[in-house]
Amino acid sequence: MTGVRSLGVVLALAIAPAALAQSSTADEIAKYRAALQDGNPAELWEIRGEGLWKAPRGPKQVSLERCDLGLGPGVVKGAYARLPRYFADADRVQDLESRLVWCMVTLQGFTPAEARKNPFGNGSAARSDLEALTAYVASEAKGVKMDVPLDHPRELAAYRVGEKLFYYRGGTHDFACATCHGEEGKRIRLQDLPDLATAEGARAAYTTWPAYRVSQGELRTFEWRLYDCFRQQRFPELVFGSDAAIALTVFLARNANGAPFSAPGIKR
Amino acid sequence: MMRYAKLGGAALVAIVVPGCASAPGDERSAAEAAAALHASFRPAGQVGLERLDQDDTQRACSAASGKPPPREVAAKIEAANLATVRYPADGKLIGDWKNGEKIAQDGRGKQFSDDPAGPVGGNCYACHQLAKSELAFGTIGPSLYRYLERRGNTVETQRYTFAKIYNSEAFAACSNMPRFGYKGILSEQQIKDVAALLLDPASPVNQ
């Protein structure tokens, strides 16, 4: 763990903005990401997640290998590219993270609070099993075309709510998702911003989460991405697995349909 | 916050979205979205759930879904927000550009992770080019480099600049720029200082 974190520090220093001319910064970061794809530290989370998936755990001492992620019990391959979706047993649209919690509760016998513990990791002090499991399942969808369904009325309703939330202004600063992610070719400071309301922008962004964040030395999930965007929007704290989190995920994942899934990625 | 609530009630109550020709399904989605939001957040740090409650400007701009609102709606938004601008009682519109530069660089404030005691910045560089020496600037807003040369050093420019920072929606309905004075993000003195960053001939913005 310490090794990974100090690696992150070294890499972060290696791309200090001052060392790079502004116009080429995005190119340099792209090159740097490409160079790291061979040795993405996200693999450490994927390996740990695979172990967690297959190990007998919880009061019932069973593995998650009977967990149905939408393609049948135990089918992991490609599942992430078809989520979120409606699950009849839960009578809810679920993203991967909320589906994992569901399986940990119903199959393994964890309490919901235990299953949701540490949704976002914080170094070795608080490792996140959910992030590791998400990294593993996501890695098993690499190269699979995004194919998020809107066939069920609840899926369609979630998409429409997600779209409304994308444009919902609030808080002290009047920020909505669309404030920063509603126009092509814009930046905050030096960070390029995708236009997430377009297929092109959603594909480029959604298919690269979860991702190893070099600046944090952590693997981060899409739920984390939403959580931290809302923090910066000056909104209150987004509840893990909440309706708003899932509706926005449906909106963005569906907009990315057709693109090959390529996460876990690596980001600054 | 008290002041904001009072102003909100008095000045902004008049904005309506006339003939917002949305389908019934669309209105249902909006209602569901509002319900989903309120059930999906919890208070944290200095941020309570009231941050999710929209005022009339936020509601009208959200309904426009990222597009410019209809012209008559835009005119109402701008008039209502212009009425909220409180110019300094001492008549002085320009402060200290050096402090303005610090405010422009500082992105802290009002997040649940921030110290409620401050400081609070304006984070102008997140979206605007200002001093030429700062290369890490965003592009959501226009470049403000050489603002003085472009706008002219007149009392009208000073009044416009103060008011634009105080409440950007007074001049551009559904602007992406926060309403720094009206929403109590920056103090009157901080707004004067940022205005100085733009308008003081000695400011690096004008070099």
Provide a descriptive summary of the structure in words.
The complex is a heterodimer of chains A (268) and B (207). Chain A is built from eleven helices and eight strands. Chain A has one domain (2-267): Orthogonal Bundle (Cytochrome Bc1 Complex, Chain D, domain 2). In chain A, helix 7 (153-166) crosses helix 11 (243-255). Chain A has 268 residues and is mainly alpha-helical. Chain B has 207 residues and is an all-alpha fold. Chain B folds into two domains: 2-82, no CATH class; 97-206, Cytochrome Bc1 Complex, Chain D, domain 2. Helix content of chain B is 42%, strand content 1%. In chain B, helix 5 packs across helix 8. Chain B starts with a helix and ends in an 8-residue tail after the last helix. The relative contact order of chain B is 0.16.
Write the layout of secondary structure elements.
The complex is a heterodimer of chains A (268) and B (207).
Chain A: H1 2-14, H2 25-36, H3 42-54, E1 85-87, E2 92-94, H4 96-106, H5 112-115, H6 129-139, H7 153-166, H8 177-181, E3 186-188, E4 191-193, H9 199-206, E5 211-213, E6 218-220, H10 222-232, E7 237-238, H11 243-255, E8 265-267
Parallel strand pairs in A: 5-8
Antiparallel strand pairs in A: 1-2, 3-4, 5-6
Helix pairs in contact in A: 3-6, 4-6, 7-11, 10-11
Chain B: H1 2-12, H2 24-40, E1 41-42, H3 56-63, H4 71-82, H5 97-105, H6 147-151, H7 155-166, H8 188-199
